[in-house]
Design goal:
With 204 residues, the protein is an alpha+beta fold. The protein is 15% helix and 45% strand. It is elongated and about 50 Å long. The protein starts with a helix and ends with a strand.
Length: 204
């Protein structure tokens, strides 16, 4: 039995909206996952940063920055969106003796009267294991900003940390002090400075 052309056209017209709807559904972009991160605040009382430099090529001296404030954002399950923003109070800098302290706080080094803060912002976290990796960002000291990459280690996997728990981490890097305008006493004080940040952070 042959069907008339008008019947075929009617059938196509009836199913056309369904075909368009299915096509549009298949072409629709998949919604991005919620990237809202867990925010943490650095516990100043449980955190510190040290700067170690060679002295006369035989020994070393270490300065400390005991006062700091900072925030950390970690997105559960992914490294994208991780961020750290921490500021160290250079005026509170501590040194092993009064002469070193005076020099470090003075114009030839940190010049704390003019530049009272040291600032680091990191936004590129790469994990090489569940608890170790690198964090790249910008370090500002004595009014100069330079790229810096920190080797980081967490006491618990940061991407799967239990909600409400504190996280302890260490971050290490080595900088060339000359790049920050600290060029004095090169025959006495080494140019490479080893920086270690030990911090505890609590979710907010």
């Amino acid at each position: 039995m042959m069907r008339s052309p008008s019947w075929s056209l009617a059938l196509l017209a009836a199913f056309a909206p369904l075909a368009v709807t299915a096509s549009a559904r298949d072409a629709a972009p998949i919604a991005a996952p919620d990237a809202t991160g867990q925010r943490y605040k650095i516990d100043e009382a449980e955190s510190s940063v040290s700067a170690k430099v060679a002295f006369f090529g035989l020994a070393s001296k270490t300065a400390r920055f005991p006062k700091m404030a900072g925030d950390v954002t970690i997105v559960p399950g992914q490294t994208e969106g991780a961020r750290i923003d921490v500021t160290f109070d250079a005026t509170a800098l501590e040194a092993p003796d009064s002469v070193t302290l005076s020099r470090l706080r003075g114009e030839k080094f940190f010049w704390v009267e003019k530049y009272p803060e040291v600032h680091f912002v990191g936004e590129d976290l790469t994990l090489t294991s569940a608890t170790e990796g690198t964090l790249s960002g910008q370090l500002t000291a004595r009014g100069v900003t330079q790229p810096a990459t920190l080797e980081v280690e967490f006491d618990t996997p940061p991407l799967t940390a239990p909600e409400g728990d504190a996280i302890v981490f260490t971050a290490k890097t080595t900088i060339d002090r000359r790049k920050y305008g600290m060029k004095s006493y090169q025959l006495i004080v080494g140019n490479k400075v080893k920086i270690t940040l030990s911090a505890k952070m609590w979710p907010t």
